[in-house]
Write the C-alpha cells for this entry.
Amino acid sequence: MTINKILVANRGEIAIRVFRACTELKIHTVAIYSREDSGSYHRYKADEAYLVGAGKKPIDAYLDIEDILRIAKESGADAIHPGYGFLSENLHFSERCEEEGIIFIGPKSKHLDMFGDKVKAREQAILANIPVIPGTDGPVQSLTEVEQFGASHGYPIMIKAALGGGGRGMRVVHNAEEVQAAYERAKSEAKAAFGSDEVYVEKFVDKPKHIEVQILGDTQGNLVHLYERDCSIQRRHQKVVEIAPSNALSDDLRHRICDAAVKLMKNVNYVNAGTVEFLVSGDEFYFIEVNPRVQVEHTITEMVTGIDIVHAQIKIAAGHTLHDEVIQIPQQENIKLDGFAIQSRITTEDPANDFMPDTGRLTVYRSSGGFGVRLDAGNGFQGAVISPHYDSLLVKLCTWGNTFEEAAKKWIEIYKNSVFVV
C-alpha cells in the first residue's frame, strides 16, 4: 500500500521528528495543535495544521480521539503516527483508526493490549522463559497481599501501577511500616495517571542497570534488534541521560539480553518499533516491560547503527518487509555498532526549585553544533513561549564519538557553549 499523507497525533519534538522523516520520504504531513500551542514550533513544520480539541483542557485536546480522527479524514490523511506519550499506547485509539480505515503507524492492537498491561507483559516473558523479577502473579487485591509478599520475599519491594509507565504509580517500600502509605500512594497515582488503580508487587532490585533493547519487526515475521541503550541515569524513576550501546555490559551479557528481547518479540509476532526493558544486576538480567512505540531516546540508536527508526516505522506500516529494497534493514548478523552516542534533554527545569518546569519567553537561544552532534528541536528558538501546560523540552542533545569518552567530551563541551535564557 502507499501512504500519501500522515497526521502526527502529538506535539513538540517528536512531531517535528516525524515530519522530518515524512519530508525525506516525500509524504505530506498534517499537524494538530491545541489552543495553548497555537505558537508552537511543530505547528509550522507540517504542510497543514489544524486546531484540535477546541474548548478542552491543554492535555485533553491531544487526547481527543474523535476530533483527531475527524481532522485526519477531512484532511485526507491515510495514516496516523502517534509519537510517544499521549495516545501512543492507547488501545482504543488504535482500534478506532482501524475502524476508520486509517493506518496506525505502530504495533498491532493486540500488542498494545498485551504490553500496555505490565502484568500481561510479564506473563509473556515467563512463557518465553525469560527471567523476571520475583513478583505477584497479577494485580494485588488488598493491602494484606502486599504485606504478605514483603514478609515472604523480604524488603525492599516495589509497588507498581499495572498500566502505564514513566515512573508514575511506583513506590519503593523498605520495611513493613512503610507498606500502607506506599500502597495507597501508588494506587492513587496510578488512578490519576492511567485511569486504573491496579497495582502489583515485585522484589526491588537495588542499584541495577536499566537496559532497553530496540526492536523492529514486520508483518512477515522478520524481526531484528538494534542493540541496547543504557538508561540507568534517572530522576524519580524517569530517564535523564541515555547511552548507546551500554559501556557497562560485557559482550556476552549484551548478546544474551538482545537474544532474549528478540525471542520474546518473535514469540508474539511483534510488528513495528518497540523496546524490551531489563534490569541488570551483576551478570543476571530480569525482564521488566515492553514499550510498544518509538522511544524518546531512539535517536542514539540511529546514530550508532545508521538505521532510521522512524523511516522504518512508516515503511513497515505501508506493508514493506525489513529486508526488501525499500527498507533495506540488514540481516541481524550484518547490523553493526559504530561508536557510542549519548542523549540528554535540555529543558527549562529549575534546579533551585526541585527541578520544577520553568515558564516564560525564551529571550536568548544559542546552541552549538558540529561533527557528531545531533539536535532534535522541541520549542527551542528565540522568542518561544514556554507554557506551564506541557513538558518544557527545548531540544534533545545527542553526541557521537568513536569511544564513549569522545562522545562524553563532546556532550560536555556542547553544554558549556550553549546559552538558553528564559
